[in-house]
Every structure is written in structure tokens, then in C-alpha cells.
Amino acid sequence: MMARRPRWKTLALIFAFLALALAGSSAAGPASAQGRGPSDDVRASASLDVSSSAIPTAAQPLVTDSARADTALGPGSGKAVATAVSTSNCNGCSGSATTLQTVNVLNGGPAMADNAATAWSSCANCSSSAVSVQIVTGSNASSVTVNNRSLALNVACTSCTTTAVALQFVVIGSSQRALSASTRALIKQIEQQLGVMLSSGPQNRTSVQKDADDAAAQAKSAITKDTKAADVRTKVEVDSGD
Known about the structure:
Shape: elongated
Number of strands: 10
Distance between the termini: 9 Å
Helix content: 25-40%
Low-confidence stretches: 1-41
């Protein structure tokens, strides 16, 4: 069944893909690369720009990709950007991209961060899922400018499952500046489980929203307990190609 979206959203997706492609190509080290399959190694880096990209083909119909980054953001460092992009253009194909970035704001500098998940499908009996999780922490910041967004779109699609989830957590002013190893491991597990749920089969927007809200609540609880923060700003953005 074809899902129709306004023309402005189609154009927005095209520009989003261009922007994400440029962001990924500018990342230092192994922060961005196309995955080859479900056994791919997770890439880790300290890059300000971290991205995962899953683009299956007829020759390689199942592609997963994951990226992780622990980033330090000092005065003059610029902006931390996390993106996950999944695109399926072949019948029976499946792509799943997941990204997790933790950002530690140093020395009271500005906290500037963008987080985006984008999924696109144009095929039959196919799926695309993208999950991007970004956590911004710091004892203080001169200013906080953050954005969180998701975008999922079906174009000329039959029996497609297309979902994008962006989760962002901002903790500024906590008594503990960095997350503990146990909390990082838990959030990584939550992100991976959410990615598996989205790519496991057909889901409607309501079920995706519930899965995302549950994942966000679990992660927020762990972050709050770990950092002893009075407030954890949480943003949950969900989109589907319904």
C-alpha cells in the first residue's frame, strides 16, 4: 500500500539525505561507513560527527550498521552531530542503522548538539529502520542549543516497514559529569534492543511510539540515578512510513 506524504516532506527528506551524507563524509576516523551485514563490528570513535548508514542492495539484501562515539565538547569545538540513516530500494531488502553518541561538555563551554534518524523505503516487501541516541552531559554550560528529529518516508512502496526514532537526553548541571560504565552499557543495550524491535517486522506508528517511549523512560531512569541530576531533558521523536 502506498503511503502519500506532502511534497514539502519529500523535498525535506532529499535535503536531509544530502546533509547527512556530507556530515558522514566529514567525520574523522572510522565513525561512518556502510555496514555489510548482521555480523558487522561496531565502530567506535571520538569524532564530533558520528553516523551509521545501512543501504541494502539486491546482491546484499540484509544490511545492518552501528556506530558509537564518546565525544568531548570544549569551548570552540563546534557542534556534536549524531545520525542514523537507512535506505531500502530493492524488493525484499532490509536495512537497519543504529547510532549512539555521548557528549561531555567541558569547562562550561556551549553545548551544541544535533541528533537525527532518517529512514526511506521505495520497494516491495522491504524494511528500513534507523535509531539514533544522543546523550549530552556536563557540570555546566554557557548555553545549550540542541535539536532532535526523525524522518521516515515510503515512496512507491508496497508492504513496507519504515521507521525512524531519535532519542536525546540533555543533563547539564549534574553532580557527576560523566556516565558510569554500567549506565553506558545499559543504554547501549537499550539502543540495540530498540533497533532489533523496529527491524523485526511490520509495526504501526502507535507501537513504535510505545517502544520508543519505554526505551526513553528506561534510559532516563538510569541516567538520572547515575548523574544525580535534578532534571534530564528528554526528547523522543518517532516517524513511520505508514
